[in-house]
Structures are given as structure tokens and as C-alpha cells.
Write a structure and sequence with these properties.
Layout lengths: L8 E5 L6 H11 L3 E4 H8 L2 E5 L4 E4 L1 H14 L2 E4 L13 E6 L2 H10 L4 H12 L2 H9 L5 E5 L3 H18 L7
Parallel strand pairs: 1-5, 1-6, 2-5, 6-7
Antiparallel strand pairs: 3-4
Helix pairs in contact: 1-7, 4-5
Catalytic activity: AMP + ATP = 2 ADP; ATP + H2O = ADP + phosphate + H(+)
GO molecular function: AMP kinase activity; ATP binding; ATP hydrolysis activity
Subcellular location: Cytoplasm; Nucleus
């Protein structure tokens, strides 16, 4: 928990298309948290083991990512954006947010991104079976896992408000008034 020794770290996770990057960007704009987009970091710093031609994405090297982020996460003050969560050290996070979307909404978002059959189907199944929520609950203490709906712009605004409220309680110096 945030103890004054370091700033807060929040992980925002969820199936691709649930609004993680947009939510984190808005939260970073409204606070003193630094947005860490793991997908972009992996590309920029080449923290991967190549390209998956079937899923059309980099094969993340989790050890390289964790090694690269260790110092920054130890200092705190980060909002991390990634669709997985079980490989990050538990000690890094004070709050783990799992964004969730209705499958019809998610389907449209992913189809608009150009996701093809298998990738689209896999991500919809992931959301139906709440894979990311279960992963978060298995990887972190139940009391720090916060599922939030993310179907609309209003949901996103409400979620940023809820996260700012959490910060006001746990790390008020990070909220910009």
C-alpha cells in the first residue's frame, strides 16, 4: 500500500478494446501519475522476442519488461496500461483496475481496429469468461482489484473520477485540483 516511501502505482488491465490506453491517458492528464503503456514500451525498447505472424503482435519478453521497469516502479507514481497482469510483481501495485466491456461493444471496437477472425474471437471469449478479472484476482490481493465498466465515454469519465477519488484518499499529492 502507498506508505509515503513511494508514490502510488496503478495497473489498468482488461481485454484489448476495453479502453485502457484512453483511460490511462486521461488519468495521467488529471494527476501527477506517469502513463506507462507497456505495448508501446515493448516496441520502443525492443523488449520482445520477435513477431507473432498469426496474432500480428510482438511476443513480449516479460522478464525484460520487468527488469526495465523495476527502478521506475519502485519510485512509484505510475499508471500502467497492459492487457495482462500476472507477470508483474505483486509489490508494484497499490490498485489493479480491470476494465470490462459488453461483448457487442467490444466486438465493434475490435472490428473497427481491423482485428481478424481468430484474434477477434479470442478477445471476445476472453471478455465473456472474464479471464483478465480472474487473472487479477489470482495475482493480487482481492481488496486492491477494482473491476469497472467501460462501455461508453461516460463510463470512462466516471472511471477516471473514481480513480482520482481513490488517489485523494491514498495519495492526495498526486491529484491535480
Amino acid at each position: 500500500m502507498v506508505d509515503g516511501q513511494r508514490g502510488p502505482n496503478i495497473l489498468v488491465t482488461g481485454t484489448p478494446g476495453t479502453g485502457k490506453t484512453s483511460t490511462c491517458a486521461l488519468l495521467a492528464q488529471a494527476t501527477r501519475l506517469k502513463h506507462v503503456n507497456i505495448g508501446e514500451l515493448v516496441k520502443e525498447k525492443e523488449l520482445h522476442d520477435g513477431w507473432d505472424d498469426q496474432l500480428l503482435c510482438h511476443i513480449i519478453n516479460e522478464d525484460l519488461v520487468c527488469d526495465h521497469l523495476e527502478e521506475q516502479m519502485s519510485a512509484g507514481g505510475n499508471v500502467v496500461d497492459y492487457h495482462g497482469c500476472d507477470f508483474f510483481p505483486e509489490r508494484w501495485f497499490d490498485l489493479v483496475v480491470v476494465l470490462q466491456a459488453k461483448t457487442a461493444v467490444l466486438y465493434d471496437r475490435l472490428a473497427n481496429r481491423g482485428y481478424m477472425d481468430e484474434k477477434l474471437h479470442n478477445n471476445i471469449q476472453c471478455e465473456i469468461f472474464q479471464v483478465l478479472l480472474e487473472e487479477a484476482r489470482e495475482s493480487y490481493k482481492e481488496e486492491i482489484v477494482m473491476p469497472l465498466p467501460s462501455d461508453t465515454i461516460e463510463d470512462m469519465s466516471n472511471n477516471v473520477g473514481a480513480l482520482k477519488e481513490w488517489l485523494r484518499t491514498h495519495a492526495p499529492s498526486y491529484v491535480i485540483e
